[in-house]
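**Sequence with structure:**
===
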Amino acid sequence: MRSRIKQIVGYLFFTVCCLTVNSSAIAEEKIRIGWVYAMANTPVLVAYHNGFFKQEGVQVELRRFNSGPLLKRALDAGDLDMAYVGMPPAYHSIAAGNDLRIVAKVNYGHAALITLKNSPIKKLADLKGKRIAGVHQGSGMDVLLKSFILKDSADLDPINDVTILHMPTKMMVASVTQHIVDAAFTWEPFVSFATLTGRADVLFDMNKAMPKHPWYVIVANKKMRIDHRDAMYKVLKAHKRAVSYLNAHTDAGNDLIMETFNLESALNAARSPVQAREIVLSARGRLGWDEKFVTADEHFLQRLMSYSNELGFLKKKLNVDEVIDRSAIAWLQQQL
């Protein structure tokens, strides 16, 4: 009998040790977070460089991607646990069968349609018959340009009334100044760079047309949401701290932004007397950060998914309930 008890006690001790080791391994395992290289995603940089992730008790490995579609491929391949990404790549990945959910908001604003300084194009209707620079076809920015701006706001046919030339963002300002296109739909800090250097004017500001509309969000895969939810919450708490840090003062995080996005080099190359800090401050007038994903954001997300479906880019109709994690969003809003 005593021998049997010893065996049971030994087995229980072994099991507890294994569980402890496994829990420790999970705690020490780095959470792989992808982020799209955009000023709008500054909160993830602040959370990392200011030590907020570590202070909340999570180890994070940041992986940078130059576009949402590239990050989407990593999500689809299972190479990321969480990501700071635009809503369109997120819902396209979900439509393709990836069990992701939006768990927080990252930013609002940031996009604008620019024209050459003193251009004869004074209103959206003047774009008829003109050439517009945009990022690659089917992207979220492409959907916004074709549906919200051209179709709904300008009452133009985005296929027949204008010519959209798809190109990298870094080429857009030059394409306007060199008369390759008549307008360009781009984002910060490129908008502020173009306007402060005297090269362009803003024809249409998305944030004025749709105040505080969401764009970049945080998504988490099923394993994070189910098996490591506590760790996910720690990431979200660090994110909330980063947003609060940035919103506390207009200078907060600006040095990090200037360094990360090489603004000084771009200005030097353009031989512009404008200072990098001026670009950042201007950009922050159009771009902002907020972790709360509210009802108005849900409506905008649903509208965007409907646009994508109508244009044939999103093959499956999605409802917002299939895309967001309401409990995670509610939890974050309750945190002080």
User: Anything to note?
Assistant: The first helix runs from residue 2 to 28. The two ends are 55 Å apart (CA to CA).
